[in-house]
Amino acid sequence: MSSIPQQVQLVLENTEPLKWSRGNRLPVYLWPIMDLTIDDEAEAKSIIQQLDERGIGLISTWNPSDQEQTLTRGLQIGRIQKQLGLRVSVNANPCTYSFCNGDPRTAHIDEGGKAFFDQSFGEGHQMGCPFALDFRRPEMRKRIEFFVQAYYEADLEIGFIFADWEIDGPIEWNGAWAASKRCQRCQDQIEDIHDFTTFQSALRQKRSQLQREMLADTVTSYFPHALVGNYGVYPHDGHRYWYDYFEKFVEGAPYRQEGLAKYRQWFDEFPLTGYTSAMPVVYTWDTIWNWYDFDQVDYRWFYNMLTVGSNAGKSTPPEIPIVTFVHWHTVHTIEDGNSGIQQFSENMYQELLWHLLLRGHDTLFMWCPLDQTVQETRLVHQVYAASLEYRDFLESGTPINFDVPPQPSPVISGIRLGDYLLLRRTDFDDTRADVTLTVDGFTFEVPRVLGKCMIKSL
Prior knowledge:
13 helices, alpha/beta
């Protein structure tokens, strides 16, 4: 009987070895198969090789609550990855929780000296004062450093390490602004606390400092070339075009309206975090559906998700890899509000993934619950594997277009490499005519070609 974990077996059975070489492209990452737990090293090596033949990178998790065992397992996988010439990849998320751990010293303090917590982020989240967390910094840094130092001493260079650090530390949404306006310490620290932009700036700067000291600087001080990132932290154009499941809009916060969407003003945090990879989030949040009234229903999803991806693509310097969290099944966050939602079609979701890759995204990181593994993996892996036919363009080319049409119509993305263009056109209406584009002074026509990339010479 095989000892291969069920989720890994499902992935192997539902993907094919790559037809084209991955070269220097980052592997695709799949959340459901993190942490290979096999004692037999030869069998573990075989599985890692099979995954690599499919372009899939394996990630090991560090857990300070199970420190020795997760370190031992991570080092084992890391040694195999090094032997095979693969990138050693790590999930450091358990190490990052929590600054706001319920300690009374982390609480807000009202004008009467009474301690209180912000309870607006859900059960189990005792969100405290952003300016009372500094005493937690040494412990949080040491959690990461314990593992990093062990990898350094084992001569295992970390190639990619990430966290999914979300509901912790300073966050400006939900009831946080109201709590800080009650807190005497916050009032002392933020001179104009009644101005949301000032409040957001203060909290995001503090949040960035915590991430930098805890994760980014700790890793890069040992491994200067490591790709370090956190879910949802990436360069942008000053707005956030999506809401996480725990986030609620705050009245008085600046935003840009489109349809029923309120695109929130967002602080430029990425440069302050020290992160060396960008990790945008391109998910089918249920809220997206009702923001827009397009009759072409797939375009409700496609429009928002490509807007998110284009924002990251155009804003991220080319030397910073973009590792993009993606998900296809509708993410349900609204109670009793999902009855009329139509699922994003598989075909157009895959078209979206193509456009992300042609707009500067370097690889895809698929997240999903375990019961969605097969379908989600298949959709992502098919696009990733097929994209490697154009590896030279993806590795060395420059994206030419970040426009997202405001109404259902042809969507075009492309990459220029020398005198050639790699293009993809996806149509959301009955337009049959060629679409005219101008790139670097060259004007050319893009014909309607369904489901395929095309190469044009300038």
